[in-house]
């Protein structure tokens, strides 16, 4: 391949590199301060650089090609923010004395709120400055946007919101007990929006790290650790990593099982999560996520079966008793086995109902039953395609008229577009299946 020459050629190459590999952000003051702050705590790293990427936003770039087995990052224990950090702070004495004991989660949230309030006086200010100021998780969205989420994500987002509200209410007395530490009223420092921010920070950014059970905490597992710099690593479902705390080096280490090109983005995998889970827990959607699926609610399922069926109640009872009314999905490979099984049970004829155990085990009860289940799956799939397209039109209109909701609407749009691709792929599979059996 001929090399480009001269200043124009160099500029062109640099522009192309920025577009495909990300824009190096290590010169920004917040990252310079963060690297120095981490270095003072024993962290040395020459393999990664903060960068902005077109698809994922902020992330970490490799400064050299990485091979499977390479250590991506090794973050010393002194850099980690855990409940031990909280207990060694001025909050420690109050936590030790408080009864009933607070949870490890409440302890971490309280610490984050207190340190953010301390501002320049906080030894953790450098890290707090690079944390997102707001969360993109549905728990923080306006109800109008939550309402256009698919089920069961909408329900789960509401459950999370209720959980934070209950946490806020149940923690009021503990927050008030901290008043001697502050000149300002604790009601201002530990208000609902502050707790929501702290809860989302812990929920979206902590790594799993098991700590010994302490009497000063409730019996909830103490498994959280905030990991500055390491938490800039973005998720990809296509990579594999080995991550754990190394007792010998007293560092949290991540080793890659995948390759990464020089100047490419270094990814880790948060787990085999579908897009609904990623949006709920982390506030983003992954394109072409192999783990994604589209859920079919029990209400949608029942629309396709006659309400006057005398055995309808008994069929529903069978499905409920054997946990076949939840987690019914369409995926990249078509309707799930669980969905087809539920459809087969609901499609049993009056003379076939006694064979429901065979249907649950995946046995063929009759050709008619099989065909009806597949046909109903196709009808449900087409219904969900139309419903998804309708919601996408609605979101498109809202994005033009409701500027304040634009970012959150874009996330729902991304999720729904991925759903549409999955449903269209499923419809194609079902159509081919139908042609093969007729």
Automatic annotation (TrEMBL):
Single annotated GO MF: histone H3K4 monomethyltransferase activity
InterPro entries referenced in this protein's UniProt entry, alphabetically: Rubisco_LSMT_subst-bd, Rubisco_LSMT_subst-bd_sf, SET_dom, SET_dom_sf, SET_MeTrfase, SETD3_SETD6_MTase, SETD4_SET
Compartments (UniProt record): Cytoplasm, Cytosol; Nucleus
The protein's enzyme class: transferase
BP GO annotations: inflammatory response; methylation
EC identifiers of the protein: 2.1.1.364
GO CC field: cytosol; nucleus
Reaction catalysis annotation: N(6)-methyl-L-lysyl(4)-[histone H3] + S-adenosyl-L-methionine = N(6),N(6)-dimethyl-L-lysyl(4)-[histone H3] + S-adenosyl-L-homocysteine + H(+); N(6),N(6)-dimethyl-L-lysyl(20)-[histone H4] + S-adenosyl-L-methionine = N(6),N(6),N(6)-trimethyl-L-lysyl(20)-[histone H4] + S-adenosyl-L-homocysteine + H(+); L-lysyl(20)-[histone H4] + S-adenosyl-L-methionine = N(6)-methyl-L-lysyl(20)-[histone H4] + S-adenosyl-L-homocysteine + H(+); L-lysyl(4)-[histone H3] + S-adenosyl-L-methionine = N(6)-methyl-L-lysyl(4)-[histone H3] + S-adenosyl-L-homocysteine + H(+)
Keyword annotations: Cytoplasm, Inflammatory response, Methyltransferase, Nucleus, S-adenosyl-L-methionine, Transferase
UniProt-listed PROSITE patterns: SET
Limits of the SET domain: 46-271
Primary subcellular site in the record, as a coarse category: cytoplasm
Family: Belongs to the class V-like SAM-binding methyltransferase superfamily. SETD4 family.
Complex formation: Forms a ternary complex with TBK1 and ZNF268; the interaction with TBK1 is ZNF268-dependent and leads to TBK1 monomethylation.
Protein name according to UniProt: SET domain-containing protein 4
The organism of origin for this protein: Sapayoa aenigma
